[in-house]
Structure formats: C-alpha cells, structure tokens
Amino acid sequence: MKLRSLLFVPGDRPERFPKAAASGADALILDLEDSVALEKKPEARLAIAEWLAGERQVPCFVRVNPLDGAETLADLAAVLEAKPDGIMLPKAEGAASVRALIELAGGACPPILPIASETAAAVFELSTYREVAGHLAGLTWGAEDLPAAIGAATSRNPDGSYTAPYETVRSLVLFAAHAAGVPAIETVYPNIADTDGLDGYVARGSRDGFTGMMAIHPNQVTPINTGFSPSDAQIAHARAVVQAFADNPGAGALKLDGKMIDQPHLKQARALLARAEG
Fold first, then answer.
1. 143-185: per-residue pLDDT in tens?
2. Residues linked to residue 139 through DSSP beta bridges, in sequence order
3. Is there a smaller number of Cβ atoms within 10 Å at the N or the C end of the chain?
4. CA–CA gap between residue 83 and residue 110 (Å, rounded)
5. Could you tell me where the DSSP H helices lie in the chain?
6. Crossing angle, helix 95-104 and helix 72-79, to 10 degrees?
C-alpha cells in the first residue's frame, strides 16, 4: 500500500467522503476520535460502515478512539465487518497497545497505524514496535496531544518550528519506524492557508527520512504527493548509482559525476527506486 498522503475526514461528515476520495490521496483516515463529538460518534460509526461497504476507490483507515476510554470496542464492532484497509490507533503506547487492539478486534485486525507519541509513556515504548512490526501499516506521531498531556504551553516556536522536546520526539518516532521496517509518516501541517510553509515542511520530512504525511485538507494532498515522490532527477541519479556498481562488481567505492559513492549510497539508491516503482 503506497502511503505518501493520508487525508483525515471527520466520520460524522459523510458528504465529504466522496470529495476526499477524489482528492488524489493515497489513503483516507475516516475519523471517529477528535473530530467527532461524543454524542455524534454513533452516527459517525454508521456513516463510516456504510461508506466502507460500498465500492472503495481508495484505501481507507479508520481512526478509532483511544484504548483508555469506553468507545474503542464500539468503534471496532461497527467497522470491522466492512473490512477497512487499516486502523489508526491514537494514544498508542508501544507493542502492548497494538496487542490490546488486536485482542479487542477478536484476534483478526487489519494493519494498524499507531500514533506513537501522544503520551509521555508512549515515548518510552517506541522501541517495542519492532516486536509487532508484522501488524503495522506504519508509524506516525502527533505534536498536539503530547504537550497537553504534560502541561506544556505549546510544541512550537513563534516561527512554527518545533521546540526541542518535540523535535526529539519526532526524531525518535522516525527512527522507531525504520527500526521496525515500516513506513514513517510525518504529522499534519495545521496551517491550511500557508502553502509555502507546507512545501517546506514536506521537503524537510522527505529529506529526513519520512516517506509520507497526514493531511487535514484536500488542497494539501497534491503538494504532499509531489514532495514524497522521487523526482526524475533523483530517479536518474539512483539508476546511475546502481548501474555503476553493477558495472564494477566487487567494488567498495566508486567515483560518479566527480563524487565518491560507496555502499550506503547504493542502499539509498535502491530504496529510492523501490519507492518510485511502488
């Protein structure tokens, strides 16, 4: 499943589902958690189940409610029969939360995408996702719930960049995803009107090793898809690196376009080509 862009849609706004599906997003996240008021969750479950039961044009994840509340079981009971392509688990705290969700689902659960950084305890469980990698669709993080959980005023500096504690958490989730061998999904960019800021944020995420990103508006999908897709120049260079080593079997290091390349460059080139072909 290609996961460059994952677009959130409130579960109680079914009139938005078709527009979201037509946005070009690689996947939708049909939300039953934060964007849906408690009294509207039953109707949101019904709307999502009805949508999932129809002819699906784009993979659909369902964000259920956190395991520490009373809503998760009802969420799963409503949507699992319609076979969503994945479940997003908020406030996840490592492998134990993944196993608990699978148990609540009756032992059979679609791939799980944990939001892995929304509590203080979650940060200390990031390394355990390797234990349940086979059940994961990826790993992502959030920059809003954690400051609220620890009583911080904000996760951002005045210029919109993350403060040091949240930069650390972002990095740890990135490494945890790669340690587990699953896609690393960047968190949302909340300023919908700031297109230049979004472009920069996407470029930074791609540069740092994230392979996709969540979106909160259809207008964000195309820039995200573009930013997390290798460019023609990157593909051409990667092919040249692979070809250079193919032409020189046994070489540990080579010169290409006046620069030295070695095995890490070859590994990086192969990974980029795999993403381009996926």
1. 999 999 999 999 999 888 999 999 999 999 999 999 999 999 9
2. 184
3. C
4. 8
5. 17-21, 41-53, 72-79, 95-104, 120-123, 145-150, 164-180, 195-208, 221-227, 232-247, 263-277
6. 60
